[in-house]
Amino acid sequence: MLAELQKSLDQRAADGLLRQRRLLDSPQAEFIETNQQRYLSFCSNDYLGLANHPHLIKTMQEATGKAGVGSGASNLITGHHRYHDLLEKQLAQFVEMPAALVFSTGYMANIGVLGALAGREDAIFADKLNHACLNDGSYYSLAAFHRFAHNDVAALEKLLKSSTAKRKLIAVDAVFSMDGDLAPLRQYLTLCERYDAYLYVDDAHGFGVLGKHGQGSLNHLQLKSSRIIMMATLGKAAGVAGAFVAGEQVVIDYLIQTAKSYVYSTPAPPALSATLSASVMLIKQGDGLRLQLQQLILTLKSHLKLTKWQLMPSETAVQPLLVGSNHDVLKVSAYLQGKGILVPAIRPPTVPKNTARLRISLSAAHREEDVIKLAHMLNDAESALA
Q1: Which domain holds residue 268?
Q2: pLDDT at 386
Q3: Is residue 4 part of a domain?
Q4: Is 76 helix (H, G, I), strand (E, B) or coil?
Q5: Environment class of 330 (CB within 10 Å of its CB; exposed 0-12, middle 13-18, buried 19+)
Q6: Are 167 and 23 members of one domain?
Q7: CATH number of residue 241's parent domain
Q8: Exposure check for the chain: N or C terminus, fewer CB within 10 A?
Q9: CB-based burial, 300-310: b 16+ in 10 Å, e otherwise
């Protein structure tokens, strides 16, 4: 087995697919220290710049003093702290849904929800560019798993129309993490009503950024329905950690009893929930941060002067720059790193073959001059490398 594992790693390296970790020695911010060097970073999903916010740091310190550092037991024994409960109620109110349930991670949320709501007699319909955790949750549910071409409403309808499943669940990202575009959620909801299906929306990259006061993609599109169940992560725009699922009260009550990743896990420390409660208030008051983020997106687009590499269409904080081959995108990322700028090279299987790209993540913490510097360095990189 060990020889086979090494052979697989060697092949990954030859294909330009071997990943390596960076050692971070600073908080997440526009400038970070990693591998003992200082860089301007466009790697983080900290879209509002809250991960190092002094108010959140103070809140976590105070809450830890009151609640300790660990939850100590599963949610259904004695692990459900008042801080957890208050956060769930606050999140439900914020996204204007009847109830919410907090999970330790978005991955655990998707696996738990899809496994609880769909089984052998049911069917899940998923966009081919969905995040891996939506795919894994679908596989683990044992439901029939149907995938359709990216944002292809007609293809989805064809699958729904021919399905004889007892329960139908459409599971999609709201904002696609590697493309930055939005799913046609309004059309999907129409199909749910037509074919008696339910819509499960992963809003990891929309929550806090889109919608009125950052309420997310559903609010951005003005969608409300008892057929919608939403999930959002709390380690991106919220700046902390965890995730929540929101929907009808009966859905949340059912998940508390049946979502295995919730029932059989020790919840995150209560202090995290207290900190997240403070974070939600900052998000709600953060219209200025969202405006700054939108201005930075426009700044990037206006200063890029590329002829070969393509900035993919996105109005969100995720700005993907399509390069093509694995080795080429690694060269571009290395070129930028040599200039003191970090932008991650994204390669298969995270994205389709021959669509390797730089994933530029903008944050309200960035300054205009930071983004202009990035654009100019990318222009220079194309001249030098393409």
Answers
A1: 56-284
A2: 75
A3: no
A4: helix
A5: middle
A6: no
A7: 3.40.640.10
A8: N
A9: beebbeeeebe
Nearest to 364, CA basis, from 265, 282, 295: 295
pLDDT in tens, 172-211: 999 999 999 999 999 999 999 999 999 999 999 999 999 9
Q: Are residues 222 and 74 in the same domain?
A: yes
User: How many structural domains does the chain have?
Assistant: 2
* Two tokens, residue 148: 């359709």
Distances in Å between the alpha carbon of 344 and those of 22, 98, 329, 359? 11, 38, 9, 6
Statement to judge: residues 145 and 176 lie in one domain: yes
- Among 57, 75, 48, 78, smallest CA distance to 271 is for 57
Predicted pLDDT at 317: 96
- The reported pLDDT for the residue numbered 35 is 87
Q: Are residues 125 and 197 in the same domain?
A: yes
Question: Could you tell me the strand order of the sheet in which 341-342 lies?
Answer: 31-34, 37-41, 341-342
Q: Any idea what DSSP says for residue 307? A: S
Residues of the chain under the 50 pLDDT cut: none
